[in-house]
Design goal:
The complex is a heterodimer of chains A (about 400) and B (about 170).
Chain A (H helix, E strand, L loop, with lengths): L2 H10 L9 E5 L2 E5 L3 H11 L10 E4 L9 H17 L2 E3 L6 H8 L7 E5 L12 E4 L2 H10 L1 E5 L3 E7 L8 H12 L8 E5 L2 H4 L2 H9 L8 E4 L11 E6 L6 E3 L7 E3 L10 E5 H4 L2 H11 L9 E5 L3 H9 L2 H8 L1 E3 L20 E4 L15 E4 L2 H10 L15 H5 L1
Parallel strand pairs in A: 2-3, 2-5, 3-4, 5-6, 8-9, 8-11, 9-10, 14-15, 14-17, 15-16, 17-18
Antiparallel strand pairs in A: 1-7, 12-13
Helix pairs in contact in A: 2-5, 6-8, 10-12, 10-13
Chain B lengths: L5 E10 L4 H4 L25 H4 L5 E4 L11 H9 L3 E4 L4 H9 L4 E3 L11 E5 L4 E4 L5 E3 L5 H9 L2 H8 L5
Parallel strand pairs in B: 1-2, 2-3, 3-4
Antiparallel strand pairs in B: 1-5, 5-6, 6-7
Family (chain A): Belongs to the aconitase/IPM isomerase family.
Protein name (chain A): Homoaconitate hydratase family protein
Keywords (chain A): 4Fe-4S, Iron, Iron-sulfur, Lyase, Metal-binding
């Protein structure tokens, strides 16, 4: 068995499991947010039981539309508030941040534990070794009642990346490069295990950026290997050399259309978004702040800075990043999903072009169907904000010029 | 909810890579449940789909239908707008499971290049056989797993879980 199978077997109470086998596994945490949670609650109530399987193992986070931008959004908040009071489950309703970051900070699972989340980017928790499986509202409702989920044991592939990333190339470029290579359906229904010497150099923030976007290749589970145990038998091993990965950009209309940033230079932009569960962590903000320190956002460009959690927002304040962003002409919003999924706080009109550190760029994702979203790293996004066009890292701030690069 | 294993309907051919933002756009995410159907495919190339669709119509698509977000609103919107079945060359995992869980049948079959909008087809979900009504010609899709058929027959996952937990409170 490989590492994913080993942990699935434990959760299923079996000696071993095999790809294709239908199993029922025990769930360690079930999560939902203000868009999926109310539907899950409605479905749960139809089941007709008066308690969730374990009140400590169900968590809701308001992150998609908070503060409520419409009356309808507030109604959704209230559904979850009422449910959390009645059933004794935890609700984060104070703008604590994006669900996946809040779970990573406040409810971090142990390696091999099972996380079921009614949000596609639930897979992010694979960065710290959880088996994190995204589902819809009805499946979450069933888990809230039973404490289990029925799954098929997936085929598992290994993605092995050795070597060191070049200057100006970040975890975001790694995952964009992989999505470009494998396509948006490259691993549908499959598990992916990340291995290789690059993993030793990646921080937890980096790993979360990579596992977060696994769903953009269709994965069922995106999982970083435990280096202290054998990976085990997998269906296929794909090998990459980190030095070959360029600064990358995913072009509209989907995250699978990935090109070298250098190929897009001189594309004019009107908005830059730095944030989200993909790239709204302190390390992302530090890179962006260093780029923006003492510089100005270009004429005609709106720069949005969105911390992924309130803890990150506090650290940004403590470390003086907010002043840097404001002096550069950036706008700092409250923690949450921001405009990533197109409901509020920075939508695009037809003709707008955004560089965003978020995870999707489907037509209409951030507003109008004819607004364009290019996905990139915080470094590339920050440099582009200053240039007013899509640039490759190093064109505004020389490569090797940031503090963390000088340390290397 | 009545389970019908044989369906007949008009085709809407949507092509490949239809993501959930196109099926149910972000701006509609806070909509109350009784309004979901008004937004069916509102973000796609046929934004007025909800007005044009008729009960029992069948969506035909290419690869990776429903990729992207886990929003179950996408499946509910299609079902409540009247879509009786979605046939695609392949489905994204979460959309496929969401559809089955709410009792919207999905069938894997490579039809995208073979049918036109408005064409009538008949589908047997048990044998996974698609019949072109005009010519009588048949094409086979992938047989649905027994647990999927079970869920569809039960009318969705919630009904199945109710049964499973029957008597327990």
């Amino acid at each position: 068995m490989n590492q994913i199978e080993r942990y699935l077997a434990i959760a299923a109470g079996k000696e071993e499991v095999h790809a294709g086998e239908d199993i029922t596994v025990k769930v360690d945490l079930a999560i939902a947010h203000d868009i999926t949670g109310p539907m899950a609650v409605e479905q749960f109530k139809k089941i007709g039981i008066n308690h969730v399987f374990d009140a400590k193992k169900v968590v809701f986070v308001l992150d998609h539309i908070i503060p409520a931008a419409t009356v309808e959004a507030k109604v959704l908040h209230n559904v979850l508030k009422q449910f959390s009071q009645e059933y004794g489950v935890k609700l984060y309703d104070k703008g604590e941040g994006v669900i996946h970051q809040v779970i990573a900070e406040k409810h971090r699972l142990k390696r091999g534990e099972i996380l079921i989340g009614a949000d596609s980017h639930t897979c992010m928790a694979g960065a710290y070794g959880a088996l994190a499986i995204p589902v819809g509202a009805t499946e979450l409702a069933a888990t809230m009642a039973t404490g289990t989920i029925d799954l098929e044991v997936p085929d598992v592939c290994e993605i092995r990346i050795d070597g060191k990333l070049q200057l100006g190339v970040y975890a975001k470029d790694v995952i964009l490069h992989l999505i470009g290579y494998f396509g948006t359906a490259g691993f549908t229904d499959q598990g992916v295990i990340y291995t290789g010497s690059l993993m030793d150099q990646l921080t937890m923030d980096d790993k979360m950026t990579i596992s977060n976007m696994g769903i953009e290749m269709g994965t069922m589970i995106s999982y970083f290997a435990d280096p202290d145990q054998p990976v085990g038998t997998v269906k296929e091993v794909y090998t990459f050399q980190a030095e070959d990965i360029p600064a990358s950009v995913a072009c509209p209309p989907n995250p699978g259309i990935v090109v070298k940033a250098a190929d897009l230079s001189s594309t004019k932009i009107s908005q830059v978004v730095i944030g989200s569960c993909t790239n709204g962590r302190l390390s992302d903000m530090l890179v962006a702040a260093e780029v923006l320190r003492g510089r100005k956002v270009a004429e005609g460009v709106t720069l949005l800075i969105i911390p992924a959690s309130v803890d990150i927002a506090q650290q940004m304040e403590d470390q003086g990043l907010n002043r840097i962003f404001r002096e550069a002409g950036g706008m700092i919003t409250s923690p949450g999903c921001g405009p990533c999924f197109g409901a509020h706080m920075g939508l695009l009109a037809a003709g707008d072009v955004a560089v965003s550190t978020t995870n999707r760029n489907f037509p209409g994702r951030m507003g109008h169907r004819d607004g364009k979203v290019f996905l990139a790293s915080p470094r590339l996004a920050a440099e582009s904000a200053i240039a007013g066009t899509i640039v490759t890292p190093g064109m505004v701030v020389p490569l090797g010029g940031l503090a963390d690069e000088l340390e290397k | 909810m009545s389970w019908k294993s044989k369906l007949r309907g008009r085709v809407w051919n949507l092509g490949g890579n239809v993501d959930t933002d196109q099926i149910f756009p972000g701006y509609a995410m806070a909509a109350p449940a009784d309004k979901f159907k008004e937004y069916a495919l509102a973000g796609s190339e046929i934004p007025d789909f909800a007005k044009k669709v008729q009960a029992g119509d069948i969506i035909v698509a290419g690869e990776n239908f429903g990729c992207g977000s886990s929003r179950e609103q996408a499946t509910v919107a299609l079902k409540e707008a009247g879509v009786g079945l979605v046939i695609a060359k392949s489905f994204a995992r979460i959309f496929r499971r969401n559809a089955i869980n709410i009792g919207l049948p999905v069938l894997v079959c490579d039809l995208e290049q073979q049918v036109k909008n408005g064409q009538e087809i008949e589908v047997d979900l048990v044998s996974a056989e698609v019949t072109f009504c005009a010519s009588g010609e048949k094409i086979s899709g992938t047989i649905l797993a027994s647990n999927v058929l079970e869920t569809l027959e039960a009318g969705g996952l919630i009904a199945k879980v109710r049964k499973q937990l029957g008597g327990r409170t």
